[in-house]
From TrEMBL:
<dbReference type="Pfam" id="PF01386">
    <property type="entry name" value="Ribosomal_L25p"/>
</dbReference>
<dbReference type="GO" id="GO:0006412">
    <property type="term" value="P:translation"/>
</dbReference>
<protein>
    <recommendedName>
        <fullName>Large ribosomal subunit protein bL25</fullName>
    </recommendedName>
</protein>
<comment type="function">
    <text>This is one of the proteins that binds to the 5S RNA in the ribosome where it forms part of the central protuberance.</text>
</comment>
<keyword id="KW-0699">rRNA-binding</keyword>
<feature type="domain" description="Large ribosomal subunit protein bL25 L25">
    <location>
        <begin position="6"/>
        <end position="91"/>
    </location>
</feature>
<dbReference type="InterPro" id="IPR020930">
    <property type="entry name" value="Ribosomal_uL5_bac-type"/>
</dbReference>
<comment type="subunit">
    <text>Part of the 50S ribosomal subunit; part of the 5S rRNA/L5/L18/L25 subcomplex. Contacts the 5S rRNA. Binds to the 5S rRNA independently of L5 and L18.</text>
</comment>
<feature type="domain" description="Large ribosomal subunit protein bL25 beta">
    <location>
        <begin position="99"/>
        <end position="179"/>
    </location>
</feature>
<dbReference type="InterPro" id="IPR001021">
    <property type="entry name" value="Ribosomal_bL25_long"/>
</dbReference>
<keyword id="KW-0687">Ribonucleoprotein</keyword>
<dbReference type="InterPro" id="IPR029751">
    <property type="entry name" value="Ribosomal_L25_dom"/>
</dbReference>
<dbReference type="InterPro" id="IPR020056">
    <property type="entry name" value="Rbsml_bL25/Gln-tRNA_synth_N"/>
</dbReference>
<keyword id="KW-0694">RNA-binding</keyword>
<keyword id="KW-0689">Ribosomal protein</keyword>
<dbReference type="GO" id="GO:0003735">
    <property type="term" value="F:structural constituent of ribosome"/>
</dbReference>
<dbReference type="InterPro" id="IPR020057">
    <property type="entry name" value="Ribosomal_bL25_b-dom"/>
</dbReference>
Length: 199
């Protein structure tokens, strides 16, 4: 999985006043959990754009001024309700032998016979929740639609992998091919015309 480096500065004071001063300076207060003690740090708001405003999943390397680096994943993020500015980010520390849970994007591959015959592909799940050790976290999960005819559904069970565990019920639909509105209307019109012809 691709990794993004965030350069940060450790925070000594974590009160409301210090936090407000950070935000006014264009920085985002962050906390790294998962170690012995939570690590408080801040980083420039702009440095999070590739991590936050993207459909892709990334791990993070937090590089602090003292030369230490910490591997992590983004766990929680708070936005301002009006301005959408990032107010706070929680990270979770990665350990090579410890499983973590992360949302991974779904990538559709293959050509569906149903879509080629006028059906419409509906992606019910753009991301799937995955549990794995960091080395086994995939960049994306492939959903192969080459067998899907009109009316077929692709369930999460078809995407199981021995490297990671999908944290969804077996009956979760990832995507499906539905009859298009135009095709449905044409079928209804044809049936109606047939009835009128018989009358």
């Amino acid at each position: 999985m691709k990794s993004i480096t965030i350069n940060g500065s450790q925070r000594e004071s974590v009160g409301k006043v210090a936090t407000k001063a950070l935000r006014n300076a264009g920085k985002v207060p962050c906390v790294l959990y998962g170690g012995d003690n939570p690590l408080h740090f801040s980083a420039e708001e702009l440095s999070f754009s590739k991590l936050v405003y993207t459909p892709n999943a990334h791990t993070v390397v937090i590089a602090l001024e003292d030369g230490s680096t910490h591997n992590a994943i983004l766990q929680d993020i708070q936005f301002h309700p009006v301005t959408d500015k990032i107010l706070h980010i929680d990270f979770y520390r990665l350990f090579d032998d410890k499983e973590v849970t992360m949302d991974i994007p779904v990538k559709v591959v293959g050509k569906s016979p149903g879509v080629m015959n006028g059906g419409v592909l509906r992606l019910n799940k753009r991301k799937l929740r995955v549990k794995a050790i960091p080395a086994n976290l995939p960049d994306f999960i492939e959903a192969d639609i080459s067998e899907l005819k009109i009316g077929n559904k692709l369930y999460v069970t078809a995407l199981q992998n021995e490297n990671y565990k999908l944290l969804h019920a077996d009956n979760t639909v990832v995507c499906q091919v539905r009859i298009s509105r135009a095709a449905m209307k044409a079928a209804q019109d044809a049936a109606k015309a047939e009835k009128e012809g018989e009358a």
